Amino acid sequence: MYCGMEAQNLKKEILYRDTRRGIKELDIVFNRYIPNKLDSLSVEDLKSLAHIVRQTDLDLLDWLGKRQAPEHIDPVIFNQLVDELHRS
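Now predict its structure.
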């Protein structure tokens, strides 16, 4: 039961932060990724995504543009976001 509550809380935080972005490019990336993936992510992946959406817009934009995140960012989730950004 705890994992279910934790997952729900993480999803709520992710959705909240997703609506509070200030840069159009980030809106595009997160609005493509989050609605399609949120319910299928494990608790660990949700934690990783929550950590990513807590970062500043400028840092995220810089990392996504370079297609490289710092070591404290989960590379699997990050690369999925990069793929969404560069998807046609």
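Helices lie at 2-18, 24-37, 43-53, 57-66, 75-85.
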